[in-house]
Design goal:
173 residues, two-stranded antiparallel ribbon, 3 helices, globular, binds zinc ion
Length: 173
């Protein structure tokens, strides 16, 4: 396994629509393992392939946090149902470091996906897993959580992160 670099805003790749995975090759399995390692190290509870610079429809999630690890892998995930009931979580994103905002989303959803054995699966998610899945599937469609905020707030956050990035690149050794 290998750690990957996580790209951050305003990298234009984050706005691109990821392509479906056509075949679950050894390369794809390695990518998913690398994504898991990168997510745990960050640390985060979800990561889409595009965030490590690979615009393919693949997502890793583990919402267990401090408890025993429970990695979930989703290839070509598709949301097939969203509840009318909504819930609000304070969301952050590994591609928008240190910024958080309350985002309202459907409280539950159903997601169809392929597992590593190329088998079609479906899960019904609620609570944190539902929000996390929707956040990650958004990544595959070039959507970030800041896209749900007002233009003013969104621009403020992106400017702030870009500035932090500039500052952190200035090193003297
Ligand atoms: Zn994110």
């Amino acid at each position: 396994m290998a750690l990957k670099n996580i790209i951050t805003v305003p990298d234009p790749l984050l706005k691109s629509v990821s392509k479906p995975v056509n075949q679950i090759t050894g390369e794809i399995k390695k990518l998913l393992n690398d994504m898991l390692e990168t997510m745990y190290k960050a640390p985060g509870i979800g990561l889409a392939a595009v965030q490590v610079g690979v615009p393919l429809r693949a997502v890793v999630i583990d919402i267990s946090r401090d408890e025993e690890k429970n990695p979930l892998l989703f290839i070509n995930p598709k949301i097939t149902w969203r509840s009318e009931e909504t819930s609000i979580y304070e969301e952050g994103c590994l591609s928008i470091p240190n910024q958080f905002a309350e985002i309202e989303r459907p409280a539950s959803c159903k997601v169809e996906f392929l597992d590593l054995e190329d088998k079609k699966k479906e899960i019904k998610a609620s609570g944190l897993l539902s929000t996390c899945l929707q956040h990650e599937v958004d990544h595959l469609n070039g959507i970030l959580f800041v896209d749900y905020l007002s233009k003013l707030k969104k621009n403020y956050i992106i400017k702030k992160v870009s500035k932090q990035k500039k500052n952190s690149e200035k090193i003297v050794v």
